[in-house]
């Protein structure tokens, strides 16, 4: 049964696969590097990794940026800040990182991939309830009622950490039915009426455009999330990354963000 | 035909390289990511991480739900496969295509679809709640439903294929001897296609064990009730990639051991 194959029959496929893998990881970097920052041709593409809660506001700011810098395009990767931070730490070719919490930004600064992030907005939690508010929730302590089905974000993601802080400040024990992986998933459960209440950001309630009702509560002030932004040290877009951060921090940027429900730091 | 292949086997011929090279490339492609997990695993802290109670809790939940989901798929999927392979009814092709929908659907979309039907305000779900007080989302039963939804097509396709390949003359002989269709199915058809059923059940179980998207969307994520291993892995990935690697390895090791022992027991039986 012991049939010998020439050694190359093993080496070749392995080389082939490794080669393919190399292409795979090189491709995104290559497309960003196709416009070298230092060359005669200026970088024309800015890749922004931003927290999911920034989706609306940053998309609008991206259009402003493209209008102000003709020939450039802004690409976004919106997602959970923690996931984005991991992707950047693993070498994802990003130019700018805007996180929903200092803790997730720290993952990136600790890896020396960015320095001196700036807090550009703050976000506050609200209670989100379905538009008909079936459980008649009107303050935070209603969430502790075992008959009320509550969705929270998982503690590992910023909205979940904020929820724990707010509930702790209020001295409440809430037993949620689910701990969602990001704030948008939490909001979806409210929109579909599967839960009676959830703690999400004020900005998410505004973005849902009436599909859920938001209820402000005083303890939210004890769990305010700071959003830091930084141009990344190895930004393939070079100077353009700084310029995008500049736009976010400018009065124009602040205006767009405030309209989305964020607060000035 | 069988004799001819036996004859050829006696003269050991080197496999043709046109098959060998892509075959080994395919193997490397499938195995290298696993090697990546093994290389990056935090071996020194492994025992401490494994001892954490949430690992065992999630593993137990995963094994229990995947097994119940497979049992449910067998109960509903084998008759469905039989219906598709052995009866003729208008629109059978369409039905067969519909059975494979969960294979194509992104699991997260499948989860949303389940919520829209079986959720508290869903078409069937609101009736379930008002009539029986049953709500599926955010319960362990909901995990089983989500897993069965995604995994059952694997079983149905596999069993249907086995039924089509089986020699129908045995069934016909049994029928002419007076056996009812149910008896034929039970005594002749089912034993004949058993390898296909086992293979389908194994595929189904493996798919259910790895299910993530539909589960987190439909059943949510809460430790002890709905947080299965894949959900725990995903959540660990948010903050502690090393813990995620450990959890993945546990899931892999347990499933490989279970599948390998099942294989020795049933699949290799003649």
UniProtKB/TrEMBL annotation, chain A:
Residues 1-26 form the signal peptide. The keyword Metal-binding applies. InterPro entries: ModA, ModA/WtpA. It holds the Pfam family SBP_bac_11. Keywords: Metal-binding, Signal. It comes from the Bacteria. The keyword Metal-binding applies. Belongs to the bacterial solute-binding protein ModA family. NCBIfam families: modA. This is Molybdate transport system substrate-binding protein. It comes from Nonomuraea roseoviolacea subsp. carminata.
From TrEMBL, chain B:
Pfam families: BPD_transp_1. It comes from the Bacteria. It is a multi-pass membrane protein. Keywords: Cell membrane, Membrane, Molybdenum, Transmembrane, Transmembrane helix, Transport. It is found in: Cell membrane. InterPro entries: MetI-like, MetI-like_sf, ModB_ABC, NifC_ABC_porter. The keyword Hydrolase does not apply. The chain crosses the membrane at residues 17-39, 59-85, 97-118, 138-159, 188-208, 243-262. Residues 59-262 form the ABC transmembrane type-1 domain. SUPFAM superfamilies: MetI-like. CDD domains: TM_PBP2. Gene3D superfamilies: MetI-like (1.10.3720.10). Part of the binding-protein-dependent transport system for molybdenum; probably responsible for the translocation of the substrate across the membrane. Belongs to the binding-protein-dependent transport system permease family. CysTW subfamily. This is Molybdenum transport system permease. It comes from Nonomuraea roseoviolacea subsp. carminata.
């Amino acid at each position: 049964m012991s049939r010998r194959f020439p050694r190359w029959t093993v080496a070749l496929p392995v080389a082939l696969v490794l080669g393919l893998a190399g292409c795979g990881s090189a491709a995104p970097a290559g497309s960003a590097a196709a416009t070298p920052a230092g060359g005669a041709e200026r970088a024309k593409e800015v890749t922004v990794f931003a927290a999911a809660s920034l989706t609306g506001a940053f998309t609008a700011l991206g259009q402003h940026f493209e209008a102000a810098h003709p020939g450039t395009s802004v690409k976004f990767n919106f997602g959970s800040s923690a996931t984005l931070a991991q992707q950047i730490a693993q070498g994802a070719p990003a130019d700018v990182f805007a996180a929903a919490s200092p803790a997730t930004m720290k993952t990136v600064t600790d890896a020396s991939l960015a320095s001196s992030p700036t807090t550009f907005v703050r976000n506050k939690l609200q209670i989100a309830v379905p538009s008909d508010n079936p459980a008649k929730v009107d303050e935070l302590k209603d969430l502790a009622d075992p008959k009320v089905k509550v969705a929270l974000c998982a503690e590992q993601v910023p909205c979940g950490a904020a929820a724990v802080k707010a509930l702790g400040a209020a001295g409440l024990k809430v037993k949620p039915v689910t701990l969602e992986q990001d704030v948008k998933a939490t909001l979806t459960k409210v929109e579909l009426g599967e839960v009676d209440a959830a703690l999400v950001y004020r900005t998410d309630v505004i973005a849902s455009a009436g599909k859920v009702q938001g209820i402000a509560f005083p303890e939210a002030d004890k769990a305010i999330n700071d959003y830091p932004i930084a141009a990344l040290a190895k930004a393939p877009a070079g100077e353009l990354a700084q310029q995008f951060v500049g736009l976010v921090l400018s009065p124009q940027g602040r205006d767009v963000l405030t309209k989305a429900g964020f607060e000035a730091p | 035909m069988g004799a001819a292949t036996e004859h050829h086997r006696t003269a050991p011929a080197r496999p043709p390289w046109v098959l060998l090279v892509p075959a080994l490339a395919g193997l490397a492609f499938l195995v290298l990511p696993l090697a990546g997990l093994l290389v990056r695993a935090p071996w020194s802290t492994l025992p401490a991480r494994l001892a954490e109670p949430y690992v065992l809790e999630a593993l137990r939940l995963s094994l229990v739900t995947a097994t119940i989901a497979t049992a449910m798929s067998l109960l509903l999927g084998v008759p469905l496969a039989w219906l598709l392979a052995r009866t003729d009814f208008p629109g059978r092709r369409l039905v067969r295509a519909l059975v494979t929908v969960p294979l194509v659907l992104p699991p997260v979309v499948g989860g949303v679809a389940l919520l829209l039907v079986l959720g508290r305000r869903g078409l069937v779900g609101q009736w379930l709640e008002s009539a029986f007080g049953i709500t599926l989302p955010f319960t362990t039963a909901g995990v089983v439903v989500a897993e069965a939804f995604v995994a059952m097509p694997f079983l149905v396709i596999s069993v249907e294929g086995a039924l089509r390949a089986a020699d129908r003359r045995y069934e016909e002989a049994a029928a002419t001897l007076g056996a009812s269709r149910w008896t034929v199915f039970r005594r002749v058809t089912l034993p004949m296609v058993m390898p296909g059923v086992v293979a389908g059940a194994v595929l189904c179980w493996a798919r259910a064990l790895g299910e993530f998207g539909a589960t987190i969307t439909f059943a949510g994520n809460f430790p002890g009730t709905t947080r299965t291993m894949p959900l725990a892995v995903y959540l660990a990935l948010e903050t502690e990639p090393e813990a995620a690697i450990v959890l993945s390895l546990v899931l892999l090791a347990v499933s490989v051991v279970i599948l390998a022992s099942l294989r020795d027991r049933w699949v290799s039986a003649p």
